[in-house]
Amino acid sequence: MARTTHLLYLHGFRSSPSSVKARKMASVVQNQHPGVTWWCPALPASPQQAMAMVLQGVSAWPKDQMAIVGSSLGGFYAAWLSQELGCPAVLLNPAVHPTRDLARYIGEHPAWHDPAQKIFFEAAYVQELADMQAQPPSATPRTLAVIAKGDEVLDWREMLARHQAGQVRLLEGSDHALSDFDDDLPEILEFLRLA
């Protein structure tokens, strides 16, 4: 199996490339795997626009040498893209039912890392998520799901039920942000096989 030469990181809802996990992964790639192409785009609120932008951005990447890491809603996107592109993905506390969970967030919200920035989540975006959610799960996913039982935002049982066909790292405690992310990095990096 080829080593990973291109790594895509997808942040969660109301998050950004400035998230702690995104910056930590960027630092690991830069310091330990400087030859790996790293891309962590700021995703638009529209799932359709976000995926169109990402698919365009990775269109020239070698599919057999790329991998994805996604957190929360980014984990939902990563699972979807992994199936679309046939590449491995690490899912960090991945959203499983974003249509249900985000339907109550229609409207304007401050961004986590810069409250001066606003995100407007439209009702139409829920349907865009529903269209993506309709994709039947792969029988043999190439995923590693890192799931925290202590996640205060998403239900770990739903995450486990959805992603148990792939590899799973089930954490007894932790939280939605994976505050102890450093402890998870060795297994994540082993799975990613960065060049």
Overview of the molecule:
- The structure is a single chain.
- With 195 residues, the protein is α/β, with parallel strands linked by helices.
- It has one domain (6-192): 3-Layer(aba) Sandwich (Rossmann fold), CATH 3.40.50.
- It contains seven helices and eight strands, in the order βαβαβαβαββαβαβα.
- The chain has helices at residues 20-32, 47-57, 73-85, 98-102, 123-133, 156-163, 181-192; strands at residues 6-10, 37-39, 66-71, 89-92, 107-110, 118-121, 143-148, 167-171.
- The strands form two sheets. Strands 2-1-3-4-7-8 form a six-stranded parallel beta sheet, with helices on both faces. A two-stranded antiparallel sheet has the order 5-6.
- Strand 5 and strand 6 form a beta hairpin.
- The termini are close together.
What order do the helices and strands come in, and which of them pair?
Blueprint lengths: L5 E5 L9 H13 L4 E3 L7 H11 L8 E6 L1 H13 L3 E4 L5 H5 L4 E4 L7 E4 L1 H11 L9 E6 L7 H8 L3 E5 L9 H12 L3
Parallel strand pairs: 1-2, 1-3, 3-4, 4-7, 7-8
Antiparallel strand pairs: 5-6
